[in-house]
Amino acid sequence: MKKSKYFLVVTFLISFACALYVTMQVFPMDSFGKNKTATGVLSQVQDGDIIFQTSESKQCEAVRIATKSKFSHCGIIFIINGRQFVFEAVQPVKLTLLEDWIKHGRDSKYVVKRLKNSATVLNAQTLEKMKTYANTFMGKEYDAYFEWTDTRIYCSELIWKIYKNGAGVELCDLHELKDFNLEDERVQKILKERYGNDIPLDEKVVSPSNLDDSKLLVTVINTY
Asked: Which residue, among 105, 94, 102, has the nearest Cα to 155 in the 3D structure?
């Protein structure tokens, strides 16, 4: 009887350990971790870097035209348990493995930018604060209406708010929807689908191109 109980206990512990390992591989975190040592595909990247790409969709094409930029999507790189992820506002807001994120862009091309004084500003405490704040958006819906609220959120808004509220850094000035190139018929079509005849021209917005143009950032990698 004792041997039977011992066998059951050992079997349970082994099964539990295996299940925990599998869970950590598939779901590497319940909240953002503190480990900053990267073992992923890009050894040059650091916690808090910003990555840009050209995505393939009609809306992304409209974003590129309206902002006069090749970039239509961006995310923030977080290193968690030694693995490189991109925290991005898609549907829904989520973490994506960096190598998978790169493949989603046109021709797998991308640009990585970094805060110029990141060595002093993005210390362990600040990065933890950024990740804690970022986690409040996990699972939220993508904001196709580009509203400046926290109910739903879009990619460049997510990054701007993480830096502002987590690190106290405003990466760039905010703009208004009317500041962009809205005359192109492809842009007009998307605006019509989204808003009808009531386009919120005074809505505060920030685009991937605004972040790309930030004087506070320096290019680390450019594959274009």
From this structure: 94
